[in-house]
Every structure is written in C-alpha cells, then in structure tokens.
UniProtKB/TrEMBL annotation:
It holds the Pfam family TRAPP. GO terms for cellular component: cis-Golgi network; trans-Golgi network; TRAPP complex. Belongs to the TRAPP small subunits family. BET3 subfamily. GO terms for biological process: endoplasmic reticulum to Golgi vesicle-mediated transport. InterPro entries: NO_sig/Golgi_transp_ligand-bd, TRAPP_component, TRAPPC6/Trs33. CDD domains: TRAPPC6A_Trs33. This is Trafficking protein particle complex subunit 6B. PANTHER family: GEO08327P1, TRAFFICKING PROTEIN PARTICLE COMPLEX SUBUNIT 6B. Gene3D superfamilies: Trafficking protein particle complex subunit 3 (3.30.1380.20).
Amino acid sequence: MVREVSESCLDSLLTEVVSCYCNRFYPNKHDLAARRIEAIGYQVGHQLSERYTMERPRFNDHLEAIKFICKDFWLELFKKHVDNLRTNHRGTFVLQDNKFCWLARMSIDPLADSGKSPEDITSPTAGNKATHAMKMHLYFPCGILRGFLSNLGILCAVSADILTLPTCAFTIRIKA
C-alpha cells in the first residue's frame, strides 16, 4: 500500500509551522525559530532517508549520494527532478530547482508588505518582511537535505537562496 500526503496539506502545515515558530513561539528570536524549523526538517529527512535507501546498496561517494537526491529523492518529494546540479569537485554542490513548489505560490509585493509609496519601492527595506518569510520557509527543506545526508553518514551544511521566484538554489557543503 502506497502512503501519500496531499500537497495542499503539506503546504498548509509548513506555512503554519513557520508562522507559529516565527510569530508565536520565538517572535523576537528569528535565529532560534530558524534552527527549530530546520531541526524539524532534519528529522523528516533522516526518516525519509531510511525509507528511500532501504533496499539499495550504500553509496560509494558523496557525488553518488547527491545524484540520488537530484534524481530519485527529489522526484519522490516534488514529482520532478532537480533542474541543475553544479559542483566544484571539492565538496560543494549546488542544486537548482527552477520551480520549487514550496515557493511557487508565494510573491513579494513591496507596497503591501512595507506600507511604502510607489516612489519608495527601491529603498533597501522594501519587501524585507516578505523576503524574510520566504527564507524562513526554506529552513525546512534545508533540514530535510541535511537529515537525509546525515543518515547516510555524510556530514554537511545546507543553505538556500531564492534567485527569482520560484527559482531556488540549495548549496550543500560537505564537512571533512
């Protein structure tokens, strides 16, 4: 029996988790909220690693594990492959998803977000609240990737950058 979770339920859950941690539990401690959200993702990634690698042989190297994430794991999670994989062959990998589904329904409206007039849109603070909220949503998938790789014995740091909505790049830095 195949078990699946509705995408809309997962989207709503992620939105609610981010909202609760940022606005209710740690309203003035965004770093702590980010670490907690990432820790939840880490646990999910750790468990998903058990499920998706159970019947396959161990990976021979980091590149093989990253390729598995880009093809098989990403397909299971997001119903598509990673659009681009780059590496410096020294332990840094960049996975780019040109239509990351957890950002696809988000937008930045600097006027609505900042209360500024149209002339002030170019100011450095325009859109900061919306951009910050979107970045908070990326700690969960970063945690998933870190937890997945950690369960395979690969210690790493994972970060994410929003290039242009909904394009997202995940940077994985393998620790020696």
